[in-house]
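Bumping with the actual sequence this time:
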Amino acid sequence: MSLAMRVYYNAVCGALGGLLAWAVSSLLIHFSTVSFEALLLRDALLGAVVGLSIGGTLGAVDGLQARNWPQAIRGIRYGGQLGLIGGLVGLLAGEIVFSVAGGGVWPRALGWALLGAVVGASEGIATHAPQKRNYGIIGGILGGLVGGSTYERISDLLRLLTHNRDLSLTLGGAIGLVMLGACLGSLIALTVIVGRDAWLHILGGRLEGREVLIGKPQTTLGASDGCDVYLPGDQAIASQHAVLTRHNNGYALTVAQQATPITVNQQTITPGTTVGLRGGERIRIGTTPLVFRLDGVAEVES
């Protein structure tokens, strides 16, 4: 799956999370708000449900893409937990700002932006990848502002068209939350991709075509589902076969002591040995070919 396709899948998963949030909130959050305190409680519950649903579905994308079910479960857990917190705090803050400002779409959109920032940060936090975390926050804020303002405007428009507050809230909630999830998912993925500088492109094996962003100081490669770059289905690949390290002068690849040799541009690299990478190198681990890519560097001809 290419990086471009990840934007699409993030958007789909985010939209599904929004739809799930609408279904759950419609069943559980339907009490009348006769006081400001009740309104704050309703917004807190809605934000928690939306954050949990969208954060969880987006957190699972990487694991689903890699067919790494433990990673997908970890992503759901981290994304859901952080999304719940971000949604609860975000919508509370948005409602307070909305009241102080005297109404308007953008005050509440700021609350959705806070939710998006926390959801966007969740993957980077879960994988200890500062670059993913930082760019995810930016994408989450943008997605929250765009999706949140669209959500609020749709609800207002339907209220004017139908003159039925309950119907407008129901339809507006369904459409708006689906669009919010899609905006969050696509913009988080897009921002992370635009900000990338290094990634691995898997050219063969069970996950042929997948591109994995390198967003942390040390990235592990191997057959274990705990590795950052999961390479299943190749008996010649050790549980942790190699480590890709980022340092001030660039990147280096080290073969683990217990692993079999690998090749870099057809040069054999023995266990315990480190080789520098400048971008474009063709790597073979076991029988699985990969390309290490740096932004702006062409692939090395083999």
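The tokens above came from a reply further down the thread. The CA atoms of residues 22 and 171 lie 10 Å apart.
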